[in-house]
Amino acid sequence: MKNKVLLVILALVIIGLAVLVGVKVFSNKETEDVSDTEQTNVDQPEETQTKKINTWSGNSRSVAVVIDNVGDAKPQTGLNDAAMVYEITVEGGLTRLLAVYKDVDKEKTIGPVRSARPVFIDYVLENDSIFVHFGYSTRAQNDIEKLKINNVNGLVTDSAFWRTKEKSAPHNVLTNMNKIFEYAEKKEYRTTTSQRSVLNYVTDEVEIQNGQTANTVNMPYTSTHKVSFKYNQETKLYERYVNGKEEKDWLSGDIRTAKNIIVTFAHNYTTDEDAGYGRQEIENVGNLKGYYITNGQAIEIVCSKASRNAKTVYKDKNGKEIEVNDGNTYIQIVPIDTNVTFE
């Protein structure tokens, strides 16, 4: 009887040991499985993760700077850092540039800076920008004051500007974002914004369908100012030329490039503002014809601006807002009869 009891106890001990071993093996296997799963998740990012849009992300307020665009001012500097560059006709058959910056290196030099014209204010308003200029025409001054535009004007302050001896006056005024924002904070200008970008940026690469080949884009503003862009297949960027000469940054030597080009045809005419100067007015409100150009292709678009301070909406021929590649954009506002050609 005693032996039977011992045998039962021994059997129970063996069974208990077997159960413990089994639990430990199962536990180790479960730990290994979890560890493998976690390692897999670390090595393989989620497919739903999206690329950040760098061109116009965040809530910092943009800054729009009038850039001189005549021979004595060239080559300019800082234009490759601008999110958007508007080229607009001014007096004498010349053009000036309005470069719109957002979240750029605050130490980088920008310029030469030149005086404001009324039409620039339209694009300052639609981008909710701080406006930077050195002087103004009479109507531009009146509009800035009447509309209470947050502006940084070289005729009012010299703290935001300096002159270089390497260029002749008045084509030698330079600035940077540090100086601009120091002045803006002193004036208690708003430095953030809740407004979305004028352009409908998307994260996926836009490849135009059913467009026309646009490896070279030619747009002569006048007989003496002929702008063209040439597409670089390797970089997928357009390189900018004026009168057949490649344009480069003054300080870095880098060629000026654009990911996107938007052409807008707008009627311009001479006004009596500042008599004798030939000041120009641009009719940019309404539905204007244009082109969207990217990655070697172009399509016809409609550029719709409901009012002076309304955002321009760029739509395809079916009335759908176009999707724009992430990257910098040149907006070429050309005279209504400009013969824009593609090669």
Description:
With 343 residues, this protein is α+β, with helices and mostly antiparallel strands. The protein folds into 2 domains: 63-186, YerB-like fold, CATH 3.50.90.10; 201-342, YerB-like (YerB-like fold, 3-Layer(bba) Sandwich). It has 4 helices and 22 strands. Strands 1, 2, 3, 4, 5, 9, 15, 16, 17, 18, 19 and 21 form a 12-stranded mixed sheet that branches. Strands 10, 11, 12, 13, 14 and 22 form a 6-stranded antiparallel sheet that branches. The protein is globular. The N and C termini lie far apart (107 Å).
Number of helices: 4
Please tell me the total number of domains: 2
Q: What would you give as the CATH superfamily of the largest domain? A: YerB-like
Rg, rounded, reads 30 Å
Structural class: alpha+beta
Which percent bin holds the helix content? 10-25%
The secondary-structure element order is HEEEHEHEEEHEEEEEEEEEEEEEEE
- The CATH C-level name of the largest domain is Alpha Beta
User: What is the count of β-strands?
Assistant: 22
Biggest sheet details: 12 strands, mixed
Instruction: Look up the CATH topology of the largest domain.
Output: YerB-like fold
Mean pLDDT: 88
Bin the strand percentage: 25-35%
Ranges where pLDDT stays below 50 over 5 or more residues in a row are 17-53
What is the global morphology? globular
Distance between the termini: 107 Å
Q: How does CATH name the architecture of the largest domain? A: 3-Layer(bba) Sandwich
